[in-house]
Design brief:
The complex is a heterodimer of chains A (281) and B (310). Chain A contains 12 helices and no strands. With 281 residues, chain A is mainly α. With 310 residues, chain B is mainly α. Classes of the chains: A mainly alpha (281), B mainly alpha (310). At the A-B interface, helix 1, helix 3, helix 4, helix 5 and helix 6 of A face helix 1, helix 3, helix 4, helix 5 and helix 6 of B.
Chain lengths: 281, 310
């Protein structure tokens, strides 16, 4: 050890303990500050009309974001319908067939890269693929970009969860003569159920707050959604457009929409965590 | 019986093929993004060539575009975020793993993780309406009073700008970095730490001289992951960075990042060369994040091999 006095060393230790406790406090304070402001400012916009009516022009009160709520739900749902099965199957391949194969390694690499790609890039990609070629923005394109973001997340959690299932379970099922696909679908999926559901819900929570991939795909709309084949209203792009507007009542609406999104996302996160803990018991 | 076996085999082959196809889709999408971005930026690449990377022009009227101010803004805001987030994550991980009693460590760790769950656009709202006024009202005046002689902290305190964007980015990547760092910390064998304690080392000395050295590569990998997140972060930055294409030395000055420029201007761009320049910006961002991810993966992969963990 060096020759510094015991006291100086003890003081450094104490100082660093303080610093690290303070840092943790900073993190908690930041979280509480954000949650508090969104609750406080968003609560002012809450009313029945907010959930049931169309948006109004600035200056005319009484409007809502009902169309955006429906649009977001529809796109997240369709995104999930497309993305979850593909992601799960990809995860099954990685865990059950692609261990230690070169193709499996490539896919695993691509999955990790795709998880780190900025979501706005996905938006650009889907724009060139589905908006330019079809000639118009659409909720369908928005759902596809959300699906593309979900696929790698679901694939990774599926792989992780299936790998947690002990091998003797696979072996005994196969020894009984069950075909591979049956073993996976009926036994492994069942054994890993809690983890798989958690992964899917977290992926859904993640994309329901996404804005960037919807900016050039779903765009936004002041009207009710008639089909996903046209520009579709959604909460996150509404927040962006309204927050950037100079009108006070639109900004208030943006806070209200932020509150809905934040509450939904945090709710999904906390609930999945609690259920997972239950399942582990 | 044999027939049943044949059916089984066929069903298995179909199942395996289906999962393989889904798996290859991930790969195909990745290549598809690269191809589409390149295809759509050919116009801009052809017209501006390498000058695109070095020119700070951004003029939709005269159709003259360059990526320099966006690349500069992306790097500066990310640098601020990293400078703040890496040490902060390190001491938070230290707190959670070594110092806090379990009863405290679990809820605190969970709160930090929740920071990652909050959508980017919420950070943007908070940043624009709450944090930027706080910065211009308190933090920036104090900084220019003390360090105003430095060009870094000169200029009017507007709240929005590089510094605010960097700080918010730091908050956003902090949970990702600290989560990996926590894992790295708990990977260090207890025996190694205990022997240092046995020599009479204090907690901080054990952390600094043993844990950090032992897990250095993992800590670097964690920072890499945070870097990848910060560089492509879009909405929060778009709200607070000010979206200015001029290059400014001051951290108070507004700027733009690649992602914020795309978010702001893409839907409005009508001229083909304008669109193509934006696509090329996207291509640059994709290549940067791709490179970072690749390095992080190779790095962490080697790390796992080195410590004998699968």
């Amino acid at each position: 050890m060096n020759k510094r006095s015991k006291l100086a060393r003890a003081m450094t230790d104490l100082a660093m303990r303080l610093v690290s406790s303070l840092a943790a406090l900073v993190g908690i304070l930041a979280l509480s500050w954000i949650i508090y402001e969104v609750l406080d400012r968003g609560a002012g916009a809450m009313s029945l009309a907010f959930f049931t009516r169309l948006p109004t022009p600035p200056g005319i009160g009484g409007g809502g974001v009902a169309n955006a709520l429906v649009g977001t739900l529809a796109m997240v749902l369709l995104g999930g319908v497309i993305g979850v099965p593909i992601g799960m199957f990809a995860g099954v391949y990685l865990a059950e067939f692609g261990q230690k194969t070169r193709f499996g390694d490539y896919v695993r690499f691509a999955t990790n890269v795709m998880m780190g790609i900025p979501s706005i890039i996905v938006g650009l990609f889907v724009y060139t693929l589905l908006v330019v070629s079809l000639g118009h923005f659409s909720g369908f394109a928005g759902a596809v970009s959300l699906a593309i973001i979900m696929i790698p997340i679901v694939a990774r959690t599926t792989e992780d969860m299936l790998l947690l299932v002990p091998n003797p379970l696979r072996e005994s099922a196969l020894a009984l003569g069950a075909p591979r696909w049956k073993v996976i679908v009926e036994i492994l999926f069942r054994a890993a159920k809690a983890g798989l559901i958690t992964g899917v819900i977290l992926a859904i929570a993640r994309v329901s707050g996404e804005t960037a991939p919807l900016l050039f795909t779903a765009l936004n709309s002041p009207f009710w959604m008639k089909s996903l084949g046209q520009p579709t209203a959604n909460l996150t792009v509404t927040i962006f457009n309204y927050a950037m507007s100079p009108y006070r009542d639109w900004q208030k609406t943006a806070w209200g929409a932020s509150l809905i999104i934040m509450a939904a996302v945090l709710f999904l996160n906390i609930v999945t965590r609690l259920t997972l803990r239950e399942a582990r018991k | 019986m044999e027939r049943k076996q044949a059916n089984h085999n066929r069903a298995d082959a179909v199942f395996r093929l289906a999962t393989g196809l889904c798996a290859s889709m991930v790969f195909v999408i990745m290549l598809g993004i690269l191809f589409e971005l390149y295809r759509n930026s050919r116009l801009s690449i052809g017209q501006f060539g390498f000058r695109f990377l070095l020119s700070s022009a951004w003029n939709p009227v005269t159709d003259d575009f360059g990526a320099l101010s966006s690349i500069f803004g992306t790097l500066v805001s990310t640098l601020i975020a990293m400078v703040l987030a890496v040490p902060l994550s390190l001491v938070i991980a230290l707190f959670l793993v070594e110092l806090a009693p379990p009863a405290l460590s679990r809820p605190v760790g969970y709160a930090i993780e929740l920071l990652a769950a909050i959508p980017s656009i919420i950070y943007g709202m908070w940043g624009l309406f709450v944090f930027a006024p706080f910065m211009s009202g308190y933090v920036q005046p104090a900084l220019s009073d003390s360090f105003g002689f430095l060009p870094l902290f000169s200029g009017p305190p507007m709240g929005i700008g590089m510094l605010s964007a960097g700080i918010i980015l730091a908050l956003m990547i902090l949970p990702y970095i600290s989560a990996v760092m926590r894992e790295v910390f708990s990977m260090v064998p207890a025996v190694v730490k205990e022997s240092a304690f046995g020599m009479g080392a204090t907690t901080w000395e054990v952390t600094y001289k043993v844990t950090v050295r032992y897990g250095l590569r993992g800590l670097l990998g964690a920072s890499f992951l945070g870097l990848g997140r910060a560089i492509g972060e879009t909405m929060a930055v778009t709200f607070v960075i000010g979206n200015d294409h001029r290059l400014g030395l001051s951290l108070f000055s507004p700027g733009n990042t690649i992602a914020s420029t795309l978010a702001n201007e893409f839907a409005e761009a009508s001229a083909p060369i304008y669109l193509s320049s934006l696509m090329e910006l996207g291509l640059i961002l994709f290549l940067i994040t791709f490179l970072i991810q690749m390095l992080a993966q190779v790095w962490l992969h080697r790390l796992q091999k080195g410590t004998g963990r699968a």
